[in-house]
Amino acid sequence: MSTQPSKALETFDNPRPERDYTIRISMPEFTCLCPKTGQPDFATIDLEYIADKKCVELKSLKLYIWAFRDEGAFHEDVTNQILSDLVNATQPRFMRITAEFNVRGGIYTTVVAEHRAEGWQAPEPVHLP
Questions:
Q1: Does residue 115 contact residue 82 with C-beta atoms inside 8 Å?
Q2: Does an H or E element contain 98, and which?
Q3: Residue of 20, 34, 52, 85 marked active site
Q4: Most buried of the four, 16, 72, 97, 126, by CB within 10 Å?
């Protein structure tokens, strides 16, 4: 196999750093292992962020997400780890990770974690008639 999973996140320069704009990425094929049973956990990971100087490169993000496939992780921990790693790589103005895990033992879990850069304020929403 020519491509392997990797925890290395690559970035590129934000093409419009003067503007707050939202980047949304959905990753519906996230898998990791239950740390108690070793059974697979499946989730959709949604990433929303407002870049500052750097954006995450998508192929490296795909390989990064793939790297969790054989790791045991609690839902809460893996969601926060993904957020921390992406924040460290990109230093965004704002970032939110929403992890919606499929049912396990009759329970669905959704974990939401956020980062806001110091001093950054969200723009006011525009409501059109």
A1: no
A2: strand 94-104
A3: 34
A4: 97
Tokens of 125: 């929403």
pLDDT digits (tens, 9 = 90+) for 83-111: 999 999 999 999 999 999 999 889 999 99
Residue 37 DSSP code: T
Rounded (5°) CA angle 103-108-112? 130
- Is 34 among the catalytic positions? yes
Angle at 46 between CA 45 and CA 49, to 5 degrees: 135
| CB neighbour class for 48 (10 Å; exposed up to 12, middle 13-18, buried from 19) | middle
**Beta-strand pair 40-50/54-56:** unpaired
* Residue 32 contacts residue 78 (beta carbons within 8 Å): yes
- Contact by Cβ (8 Å): 47, 24: yes
pLDDT in the model for residue 110: 98
Question: Roughly how many angstroms between the first and final C-alpha of the chain, as a whole number?
Answer: 53
32 assigned to active site? no
Catalytic entry in 13, 20, 32, 41: 41
